[in-house]
């Protein structure tokens, strides 16, 4: 097979997988120095905190000993995963909160909508290009996690679930950012609403769970037949919180503790319920983004 035929075949497959909108977004995002510096600082923060953890656990906790305790590798994995979760929560909404409203402010959205690309193609391509950069950042941290594998304590299955959880969370936050970017004309408003929603998902749901849990404890404490499992439904509130979901991946006992399960009782893991809830929300957000990206649909509805 000649080299020209191989090149033509690759270009054909590339044209099928990457539409013009996605191709343009990839080129615009990756050709700027900002992408390189974002990747550099992301790895710098993750790597710096990992080495700071090793320093604290070896020098300070072991009273001057320079030997790293292998038993602490699990704690290091938890620490890096928590930092990674925080960085995803900080960066993912910002990558998608202005993709549609930014086009509208630059007055290029109308031009984009006049192309042969469908609304679904535009929205999904914008979302995929934004999240692909975030996926690149998370994948680039794999060498940092290799330090944990040097000492053991973490199974590859557990690490794979954590990374898939990150990808799902990116899609969830990205789809919400895409929705607000479609609904609001100003990027600043879209960014504020997106970060406010993210703050509620991370902090608000956790606060509501703790508040309701405390109230139910006080209400049932004086009862002669006090049984914490009677208000185990409170755990469904915790299933909305990504921090609680991540902790349930680390330790399956978190699910039993949150739902006040007795010995022998089983139920769906907290992180699996989290994925079910936010899968519905993500699909709804993407569907609404596709529905409202073209203002002509609103006009046709009013004219009926």
From TrEMBL:
This is ABC transporter permease. The chain crosses the membrane at residues 36-56, 76-97, 133-154, 161-180, 192-212, 233-254, 274-293. Signal peptide: none annotated. The lineage of its organism: Bacteria, Bacillati, Bacillota, Bacilli, Bacillales. Coiled coil: none annotated. PANTHER family: ABC TRANSPORTER PERMEASE, HYPOTHETICAL MEMBRANE PROTEIN, CONSERVED. Keywords: Membrane, Transmembrane, Transmembrane helix. Pfam families: ABC2_membrane_2. It comes from Paenibacillus spongiae.
């Amino acid at each position: 097979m000649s080299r020209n035929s191989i090149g033509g075949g690759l270009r054909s497959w590339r044209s099928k997988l990457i539409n013009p909108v996605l191709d343009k977004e990839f080129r615009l995002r990756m050709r700027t120095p900002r992408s390189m510096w974002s990747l550099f600082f992301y790895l710098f923060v993750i790597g710096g905190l990992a080495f700071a953890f090793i320093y604290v656990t070896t020098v300070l906790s072991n009273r001057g000993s320079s030997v790293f305790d292998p038993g602490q590798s699990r704690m290091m994995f938890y620490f890096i995963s928590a930092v990674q979760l925080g960085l995803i929560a900080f960066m993912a909404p910002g990558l998608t909160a202005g993709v549609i409203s930014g086009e509208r402010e630059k007055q290029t959205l109308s031009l984009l909508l006049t192309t042969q690309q469908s609304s679904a193609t535009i929205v999904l391509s914008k979302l995929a290009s934004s999240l692909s950069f975030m996926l690149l950042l998370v994948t680039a941290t794999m060498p940092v996690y290799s330090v944990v594998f040097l000492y053991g304590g973490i199974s590859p299955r557990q690490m794979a679930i954590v990374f898939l959880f990150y990808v799902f969370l990116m899609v969830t936050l990205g789809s919400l950012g895409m929705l607000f970017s479609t609904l609001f004309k100003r990027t600043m408003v879209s960014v504020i609403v997106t970060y406010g929603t993210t703050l509620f998902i991370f902090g608000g749901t956790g606060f509501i769970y703790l508040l309701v849990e405390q109230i139910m404890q006080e209400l049932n404490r004086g009862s002669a037949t006090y049984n914490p499992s009677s208000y185990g439904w409170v755990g469904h509130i915790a299933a909305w919180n990504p921090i609680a979901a991540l902790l349930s991946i680390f330790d399956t006992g978190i699910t039993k503790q949150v739902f006040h399960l007795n010995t022998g009782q089983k139920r769906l893991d907290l992180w699996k319920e989290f994925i079910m809830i936010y899968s519905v929300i993500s699909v709804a957000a993407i569907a609404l983004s596709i529905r409202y990206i073209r203002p002509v649909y609103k006009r046709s509805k009013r004219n009926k």
